[in-house]
Amino acid sequence: MPALSGLFPKDKKITFVGLGVSNTPVAELLLSQGYDVTLRDKKPTDPLPGFRCIFGEDYLENITEDIIFLAPALRPDINEIVAASQNGAYVTTELNEFFKRKKGAVIAVTGSDGKTTTTSLIYEILKNAGVKTLLGGNIGSNLLTRLDETDPQTVTVCEISSFQLTKTTFSPDVAVITNVSPNHLDWHTGMDEYINAKRRVFQFMKSGFCVLNIDDKTLGGFISKGEIPVRVVTVSGDRGKNPDVFFDKGGVFAFGEKIIDDVELILPGIHNRYNFCEAVAATYHLASKAAAKKTARTFPGVKHRLEFVREVGGVRYYNSSMDSSPTRTAAAIGAFEKKVLVIAGGYDKLIPLETLAEVFENHVSEAVLIGDTGPKIKAILEKAEYSGIIKTARGLEEAVKILHNDASPGDIAVLSPAAASFDMFKDFKERGEAFIRYVNAL
Description:
Elements: E1 13-17, H1 24-32, E2 36-41, E3 52-55, E4 67-70, H2 79-86, E5 90-92, H3 94-101, E6 105-110, H4 115-128, E7 133-137, E8 155-159, H5 162-166, E9 174-177, H6 191-203, E10 209-213, H7 217-224, E11 231-236, E12 245-248, E13 251-254, E14 257-261, H8 270-283, H9 289-298, E15 307-312, E16 315-319, H10 326-333, E17 340-344, H11 356-363, E18 364-369, H12 374-383, E19 389-392, H13 396-406, E20 412-415, H14 428-440
Helix pairs in contact: 4-8, 4-9, 10-11, 13-14
């Protein structure tokens, strides 16, 4: 039986507002099962066969459908959506519908940085433990179209963005928050709304537990204010705080037991020690120590996150296109033991960039700046009297060529934008693939 058979009564009309990997697969499956489906998107494009299509600036006019699926990037408080809801429309998302109907447990991961790596580590640990598991949400495949793959023994591992959490009301069995730092302030009304979105991952929980990095000030505040409605499992890089799971120079320890020696964890950087600890904390009740140890020794990292591309003329090139905020860039370039040459800049998410001055002073010998935030970063570095070299480029390809000309044997060159990609690329993946292509062409 198809995954979405009987999802809604057949007399209900359904509209998908905003296309993409979240909405499109669900729309196609519902259409194939005989539902009346309308597609709405602001981007003008050719109509898709079988659908009623409303594309362009007027895509939100005359919403009369019974059920509205919102894409992650759309806010739920858009006037037309609010009006449709007040008129009786049911507003939902792919994730909401999956979690209402799924079988088995859910581990949900959110945070400003490291959530993709942490989600992937959890998934790998469970696989290595022989647990039936499904990966999705903001990473992996569309979950709702895979609903029929779940059974009571399935553990779904789901990365959830603040965009998705704003429209989500489900309760996971395990909630993980990696950290909270300024991000997506071009979408959220401010930092308070962004933090409130992260709260929603545990807000509706009545059982299970929540994994928190207590070295993060905001997350520590959640605990001290008594906001977490379930048991908290704590993670830290300081064993003096008596966390449940921690790391030091000796390795990773969980609930009084050493999991692995530090030298066995192949992912570089302190930030990946936090990610691994969070993954161990989330899976300790489901997976053996051996499964975690195997994952630490074999998991190479996620694509576009400190991904080694190649060595050219003695220079090692790394693609970290996923670094869309200053904190991610700080973690990435701080993972190396020497100063690096970096390409930074991109779409402006209206988040503070001033912290890059100290980060670049300590970790960057040359910065090649591109995109909308390039001039902002340049001004910040110049004001801070940055001692390294600053150059600008008209695009990513030119930036790669500048690095190639300036780097010497033994140097490390990294794409770590500290910004989103939308000024020049569809997403960070397209940006990363372009970087790889330009490096391979050197």
